[in-house]
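Collaborator request, handled under Task 6.
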Amino acid sequence: MEEKTINPDEICQRALQAKMAVYQAKEHFEMVLKMYNDQNDALINVVNLMKQRILELEKQFPSTKITQDKL
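Structure tokens returned to the collaborator:
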């Protein structure tokens, strides 16, 4: 039966690799989160622009005001 030896340098190297993997995963997560937040902000801006334009048009043409019943 062969004896297994414990190599502290190998254990430290594996621990450092695991730590690096965690940092890389965290950076990737934050990058994806930022991308989704930016897309969400852009969508909110578009909806607000559309709302402003609708309100402008309703002021110009009050007889054609859109109500919830017509939607």
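The cover message to the collaborator said: "The chain has a mean pLDDT of 90. Helices lie at 8-60. Please let us know whether this matches your experimental observations."
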